[in-house]
């Protein structure tokens, strides 16, 4: 069958570049998982280094995690907003841990402080032990029911409505915001792999965010959420949370991946997997663990998709590993499923942000860097000269 011109063009033209965020490691950072060697403590000065670097490099935003082992995402984002110019801040909105009215006031304040750079990440939680320590004692599906009620109240408040509400989980009398948001609509992100999570996504959020699963597996999840949203007359965007290990060659990338887990012991893996299965009721976490089954010999679960991080890390446990062209090809496969946003990270986060920006961004058609000098200026990194007829000579003694 002869292809039409439009079909030929659509197949040859790569998709528009994705939106890429980075991660602020508010629970610490380092060069080796499972080891205290070359660790970096969770200090605000380091968070600021990462944030200002990714702001300059052209990442569109940063995710700030939440939990007992993390510095508070709201306070950290407030500090980083004053040190950056373009970055957006994806900050956790926690039903059950706070009230929708107080959360609306916080959101409005941070949106004003950042001049409209706030995004919200709805986090229901998947570890009953940790939730109990925060005073939350609801079962899995009840937490999602509470989240739906929370968001309905919160959304009305940040939209400028006065709210009176009485429901199963919240009662509000004459709730209001006296100080408005900068953005007319505060974008809400969310990730949940259970049926209850899909219902919340379809009904309430702007972007559904999944941990990095093989494309064939992720396709079913995206289709389910998209179908549920369509039944409600809504459309929804999709994103993916991934680590990156990008190097100039495939062999260098895989060496870096293996080095990252080279100090992880078998006992650490067994303890982590036991904790994930016994303490957590997260469907997403169960899907992550099933990708590798705790085995070191089955970690490349799809071309260039590596599950080694998930041997000991909760949550996002997969990385795209390879040279820039291979990693870009895998990203385009995700884009074909409907993914338009990637929340990336890498160990250590400062150095890996540079690698992703310098190696991968150009292949994807991204270049958001802000330059302060002419790119062709004569120096030891350039070829030829620019400006004066002869460039200064560098001597060995220098």
> How are helices and strands ordered from N to C?
HEEEHEHEHEHHEEEHEHEHHHEEEHEH
Q: Tell me the β content.
A: 15-25%
Mean of pLDDT: 92
CATH class: Alpha Beta
What is the count of β-strands? 15
Which sequence of strands runs across the widest sheet?
Answer: 1-4-5-6-9-10-11-15
What is the number of domains? 1
The separation of the N and C termini measures 66 Å
Give a quick account of the main beta sheet: strands, pairing sense, barrel closure.
Answer: 8 strands, parallel, barrel
Q: Which regions contain 5 or more consecutive residues with pLDDT less than 50?
A: 1-10, 389-398
**CATH homologous superfamily - what is it?**
Luciferase-like domain
The helical percent reads: 40-55%
Proper CATH architecture: Alpha-Beta Barrel
Overall form: globular
The number of distinct helices, counting runs of at least 4 residues, comes to 13
């Amino acid at each position: 069958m002869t292809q039409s011109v439009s079909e030929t063009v659509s197949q040859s033209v790569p998709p528009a570049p994705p939106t890429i965020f980075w991660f602020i490691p508010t629970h610490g950072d380092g060069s080796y998982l499972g080891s205290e060697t070359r660790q970096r403590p969770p200090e605000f000065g380091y968070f600021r280094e990462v944030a200002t670097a990714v702001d300059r490099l052209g990442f569109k935003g940063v995710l700030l995690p939440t939990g007992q082992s993390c510095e508070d995402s709201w306070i950290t984002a407030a500090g980083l907003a004053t040190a950056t110019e373009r970055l957006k801040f994806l900050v956790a909105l926690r039903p059950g841990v706070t009230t929708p009215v107080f959360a609306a006031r916080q959101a409005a304040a941070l949106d004003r402080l950042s001049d409209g750079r706030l995004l919200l990440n709805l986090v229901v939680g998947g570890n009953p032990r940790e939730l109990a320590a925060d005073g939350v004692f609801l079962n899995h599906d009840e937490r999602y029911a509470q989240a739906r009620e929370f968001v309905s109240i919160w959304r009305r408040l940040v939209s400028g409505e006065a709210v009176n509400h009485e429901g199963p989980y919240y009662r509000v009398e004459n709730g209001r915001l006296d100080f408005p948001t900068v953005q007319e609509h505060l974008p809400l992100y969310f990730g949940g792999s259970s049926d209850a999570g899909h219902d919340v996504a379809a009904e309430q959020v702007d972007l559904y965010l999944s941990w990095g699963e093989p494309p064939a597996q992720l396709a079913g999840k995206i289709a389910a959420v998209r179908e549920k949203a369509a039944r409600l007359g809504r459309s929804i965007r999709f994103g993916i949370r991934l680590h990156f290990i990008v190097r100039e060659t495939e062999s260098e990338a895989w060496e870096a991946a293996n080095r990252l887990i080279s100090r992880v012991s078998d006992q650490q893996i067994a303890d982590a997997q036991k904790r994930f299965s016994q303490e957590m009721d997260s469907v997403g976490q169960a899907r992550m663990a099933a990708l590798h089954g705790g085995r070191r010999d089955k970690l490349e679960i799809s071309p260039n998709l590596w599950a080694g991080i998930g041997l000991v890390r909760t949550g996002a446990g997969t990385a795209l590993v390879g040279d820039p062209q291979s990693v870009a090809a895998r990203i385009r496969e995700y884009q074909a499923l409907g993914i338009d946003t990637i929340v990336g990270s890498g160990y250590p986060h400062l150095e890996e942000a540079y690698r992703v920006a310098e190696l991968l961004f150009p292949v994807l058609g991204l270049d958001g860097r802000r330059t302060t000098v002419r790119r062709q200026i004569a120096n030891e990194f350039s070829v030829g000269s620019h400006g004066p007829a002869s460039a200064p000579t560098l001597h060995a003694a220098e």
